[in-house]
């Protein structure tokens, strides 16, 4: 199969060289039969399609393949490559509105909010040009989502939706703004917006409930009940409506009506704890203490079963405060204290319960609590005295104590061993650790690790190897493959000829074969992205599993010495068409002022003048300023620049790398990459300028960054400044005479000058 693929690739290359592009494309398509999800193949076919047909046909054909490549890159988790491919599409056809929107979504997912905003604005502008106001507004909603705190833009978007007859969309935006106002304490503005929603849609249940809730919070109980009853007519089964009415009746001391409603809510939502809490508080107000206590106890049990001991404690304490002699609540508190390591509280509550059960004649339950107390405190006198009164001499107490002491003994022996190790008393440490693995827990991982390390320190390699084998058995049974790799590597260092270790390694290699292929692909991708250190780490992990792996060995050596990058074929790009000069309503300008951050104006009224025209609403935004793009994480920009560079989008790559120049650890890397991009574009002077700046920076170091000085020398030689180039090459030669072909460079330039 591999030879067949190589043959196809070779044939395709020959066709391309001879200019038989269509035949080359057909060869590439053959590869899709066996690898239909190889994005690189679709990308290459797209490149070839641009060269093969007239402009219009080539554009459409190439874009279809690029779209497929981007889709596969994206679904495979290679977002940066997907972004680069979509950028290529926009180079070919800048009118692709959906691509701009999708790019915005991708950048938003990666946290590049500035880039996302820019993509969305371009899409909105194109929609506006074509008169697609609804679609443009949809994009501006995405822009608003990037900055949820900018409420002015959402309000204006709602107004525009309303003027366009898009009532549901307008209400949705008004709701978002009103919620934000409530969160920030601007209650009057929120109420104004909810009233505006009711003017637009009088039967809005949500707005009716919210206005009622605001009245209730302001102490206007009758008005709150009125709004609640109106909402109940509109939505008889709404829990939000029930909740408003229950709270209103409760405040009005109409407890029977409140109880009736909250029970209906609980029947519809039996798992909602907050409603049962409300019922308990109503019952307390009615002075029905036993029922209130039972409700609180049920809530406490639910939280306890969900391991939320803090809330369980709160509700159990409420029960005890209401009905002090409810034993079930005291028992729950004992369990809570035990589970939260509150030793003193657990002992106190346990003694209370043990005495209670003893007094009521429930001897077995009393004995059980005394035993539990002694597990917490083996020397507790009260518990021992109580146990003597309620238990026979043959109580299983001793057995239970021995079991509890066993766990404590391990902790004590580990601690003792660590002290002995610290002071070099290794033989004494071995005794403590051997006691653990021979008498208490044969598979105690920490004990075996410490024994292995001690034996290695003492030079007892055979015993260290035995401990390695024990650890391998433990890790193999629990499926911890990474730890197995580490221990096998350690065991091989001790004795590479041990047949047992070799057998473990064979099993590891067999089980990890598929993982090795995946790791090689992962390392290759890291190398392509310029992430040299990450690539080397993955290759080294492969070598720990399979030391003879030629690919990993070769690539590790290459990356360690040169940091070489894989390159992809150059792509011919058709220049984008000019934008149509026809007039259009500029939605970008209309909303630009509100998209950027500016001081919030305090306004209590949010009345919407319904008589305004569509154009008048937009006119309010005409005096905008430039959109502000947030500063993003430099590492993300660097990786995106690498992706653009690989796709031959050099100008875009330069812009991304420039964002890494401001006092970041990537300053020199980014400078070098910018120079390479300028060089590819034939802009040699710009490339020289950036490298000259790099070698004068404080980060530059000849021992680690000779490649920058070397590249500068090459560029100077290209533009004819041979004396300057020779000076640099002489300096490199003095630092490292074996660096690349610097010796040859010096000799040749000396002859020419």
How would you characterize this protein structure?
It is a single chain. With 753 residues, this protein is an all-alpha fold. The radius of gyration is 37 Å and the shape is flat. α4 (55-75) packs antiparallel against α5 (79-92) and α9 (151-163) packs antiparallel against α10. Among the domains are: 433-561, no CATH class; 634-752, Alpha Horseshoe (Serine Threonine Protein Phosphatase 5, Tetratricopeptide repeat). The chain has 39 helices and no strands.
- The tally of beta strands, per DSSP, is 0
Q: Please report the number of helical segments.
A: 39
**Oligomeric status of the shown chains?**
single chain
- Indicate the low-confidence ranges by residue numbers: 392-405, 563-632
Main pleated-sheet profile: none
Helix content: over 70%
Residue share in β-strands: under 5%
Q: Roughly how many Å is the radius of gyration?
A: 37 Å
What structural class do the secondary elements suggest?
Answer: mainly alpha
**Overall mean pLDDT score?**
80
Q: Kindly, what is the distance between the CA atoms of the first and last residues, rounded to a whole number of angstroms?
A: 55 Å
Q: What characteristic shape results from the CA principal axes? A: flat
């Amino acid at each position: 199969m591999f030879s067949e693929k190589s043959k196809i690739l070779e044939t395709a290359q020959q066709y391309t060289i001879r200019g038989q592009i269509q035949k080359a494309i057909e060869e590439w398509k053959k590869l899709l039969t066996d690898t239909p999800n190889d994005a690189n193949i679709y990308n290459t076919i797209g490149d070839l399609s641009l060269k093969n047909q007239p402009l219009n046909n080539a554009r459409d054909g190439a874009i279809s393949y690029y779209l497929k490549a981007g889709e596969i890159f994206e679904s495979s988790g290679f977002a940066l490559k997907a972004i680069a491919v979509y950028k290529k599409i926009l180079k070919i056809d800048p009118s692709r509105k959906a691509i701009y929107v999708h790019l915005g979504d991708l950048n938003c997912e990666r946290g590049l909010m500035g880039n996302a905003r820019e993509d969305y604005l371009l899409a909105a502008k194109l929609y506006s040009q074509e008169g697609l106001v609804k679609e443009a507004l949809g994009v501006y909603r995405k822009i608003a989502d990037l900055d949820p705190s900018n409420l002015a833009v959402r309000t204006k978007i709602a107004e525009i939706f309303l003027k366009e007859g898009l009532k549901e969309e307008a209400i949705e935006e008004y709701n978002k703004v009103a919620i934000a106002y409530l969160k920030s304490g601007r209650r009057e503005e929120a109420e104004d917006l909810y009233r505006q929603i009711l003017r637009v849609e009088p039967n809005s249940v949500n707005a009716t409930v919210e206005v009622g809730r605001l009245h209730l919070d302001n102490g206007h109980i009758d008005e709150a009940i009125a709004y609640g009853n109106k909402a109940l007519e509109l939505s008889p089964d709404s829990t939000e409506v029930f909740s408003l009415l229950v709270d209103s009746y409760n405040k009005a001391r109409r407890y029977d009506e409140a109880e009736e409603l909250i029970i209906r809510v609980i029947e519809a939502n039996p798992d909602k704890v907050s409603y049962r809490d409300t019922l308990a508080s109503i019952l307390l107000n009615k002075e029905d203490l036993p029922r209130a206590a039972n409700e609180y106890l049920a809530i406490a049990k639910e939280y306890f079963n969900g391991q939320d001991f803090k809330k369980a404690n709160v509700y159990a304490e409420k029960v005890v405060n209401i009905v002090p002699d409810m034993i079930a609540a005291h028992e729950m508190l004992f369990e809570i204290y035990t589970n939260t390591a509150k030793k003193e509280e657990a002992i106190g509550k346990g003694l209370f319960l043990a005495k209670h059960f003893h007094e009521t004649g429930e001897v077995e339950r009393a004995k059980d609590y005394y035993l539990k107390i002694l597990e917490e405190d083996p020397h507790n006198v009260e518990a021992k005295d109580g146990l003597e009164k309620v238990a026979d001499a043959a109580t299983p107490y001793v057995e239970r104590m021995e079991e509890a002491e066993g766990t404590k003994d391990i902790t004590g022996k580990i601690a003792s061993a660590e002290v002995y190790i610290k002071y070099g008393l290794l033989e004494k440490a071995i005794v403590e650790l051997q006691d653990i693995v021979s008498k208490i827990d044969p598979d105690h991982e920490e004990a075996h690790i410490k024994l292995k390390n001690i034996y290695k320190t003492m030079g007892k390699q055979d015993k260290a190897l035995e401990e390695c084998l024990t650890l391998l058995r433990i890790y193999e049974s629990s499926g911890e493959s990474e730890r197995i790799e580490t221990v096998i590597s350690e065991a091989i260092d001790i004795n590479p000829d041990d047949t047992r270790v070799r057998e473990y390694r064979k099993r590891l290699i067999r089980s990890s074969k598929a993982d090795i292929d995946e790791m090689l692909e992962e390392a290759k991708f890291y190398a392509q992205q310029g992430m040299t250190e990450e690539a080397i780490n993955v290759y080294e992990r492969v070598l720990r599993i399979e030391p003879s792996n030629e690919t990993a060995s070769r690539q590790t050596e290459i990356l360690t010495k040169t940091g070489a990058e894989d390159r992809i074929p150059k792509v011919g790009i058709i220049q984008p068409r000019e934008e149509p000069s026809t007039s259009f309503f500029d939605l970008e300008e209309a909303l630009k002022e509100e998209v950027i951050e500016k001081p919030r104006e305090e306004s209590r009224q949010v009345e919407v003048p319904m008589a305004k025209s569509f154009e008048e609403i937009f006119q309010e935004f005409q005096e905008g300023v430039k959109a502000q793009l947030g500063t993003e994480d430099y590492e993300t920009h660097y990786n995106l620049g690498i992706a653009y560079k690989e796709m031959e989008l050099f100008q875009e790559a330069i812009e991304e790398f420039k964002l890494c120049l401001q006092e970041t650890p990537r300053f020199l890397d980014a400078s070098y990459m910018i120079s390479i991009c300028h060089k590819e574009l034939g802009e040699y002077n710009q490339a020289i300028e950036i490298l000259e700046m790099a070698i004068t920076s404080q980060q530059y170091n000849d021992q680690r960054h000779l490649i920058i000085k070397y590249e500068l020398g090459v560029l100077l030689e290209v533009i004819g400044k041979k004396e300057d180039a020779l000076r640099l090459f002489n300096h490199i030669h003095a630092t490292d005479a074996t660096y690349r072909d610097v010796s040859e460079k010096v000799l040749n330039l000396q002859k020419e000058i």
